[in-house]
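Annotated sample (chain length 358).
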Amino acid sequence: MRAWLSTGPSARRLAGRCSTQPRPSNRSTACIVPHRPRILRHVAQLLHRHAITPLRSRVFQMADIAAAQRGIRHDQTEPVRFSYAHDGQSPFRRWLITSIERASGSRHLKRLYDDWVAAGAEGNPFDVAMNLLQFRPDLHGTPLPALPREGGLLLVANHPFGIADGLALGWLATQLRDQVQILTHSLLCAVPEFRPYLLPVDFGETPQARRTSAATRRTAADLLRSGGAVVIFPGGSVATSNRPFSRSAAELPWHPFVARLALTPETSVIPIHVHGQNSLGFQLASHVSYPLRIAMLFHETRRRIGSDIRMTIGAPMGPSELEVLPRPDIATALRSRCLTLGDADPEDTFHWPRHIRW
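Output written by the structure step:
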């Protein structure tokens, strides 16, 4: 079943603004080096030399998210940065990440965002983003009308792309419920219009990470009990090939965090498989340097502009179906159900190479 996005006047006007943007020259995109392993190795050596701290997920404080949920807008003069660089990195590392991002697509995406803000920033931001980027949801499996109309919905999905799949799942959730929250530690947190829909999650092992995740879990469970929808990518990171030149990217193990949400009373778990994977360049970068990997995410988003986002929706699963399983096995069972929807092998699991420094 093909689900088309809204084509109202505002959407058409925004799409028209998008189409009039000048295309970046070939010279600017030629700065990307996804198919040159030798250059990537040199870049990795520089990153290793200038590394100072591990890169963990960067999230807004819970107070900021709560303020956004109450409708409190941030200062509109506050600059919105489309970058995965942050203050915890060395100046050289920040410069390198932002340079690659600008050469590979962040400036183009930022222009689309600025045009939307200049036009009034109206509408569901997921709907608008899908229109601006010309992502076409291609839905298969369980039809949307057949999904539960009452009670909480927990949408669990694999994570093949990084940004595009987050937008697609957010769009899908807003078609099913008025109240939607996405558990994320992605760049979307930097965009004020998305903040009311986002909850920060950190799958790290630090005390601060555990506190953040505990607060998020309570908020998400409350939303599920009130009949809203929660979206989570339990793998926590983008699917990656276990070998640099492998044709198949593998999903990471799913965090047990998802099991507690799945057992929320009167909640239906909807497994969703997002088909596809990132480019060979992204896979190569992932085996060279973590900062280089995340710097490639804008490239992966831009190269997907105008494409279908195919999603297979599985049959709903209730708490009664999951609570018979041992708690440690629930996340694994949900992961297997999700991956088999796309004929993927649940046994194929990505493990970080030992030489990768976060």
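Annotation: The longest strand covers residues 267-274.
Annotation: The first helix runs from residue 9 to 19.
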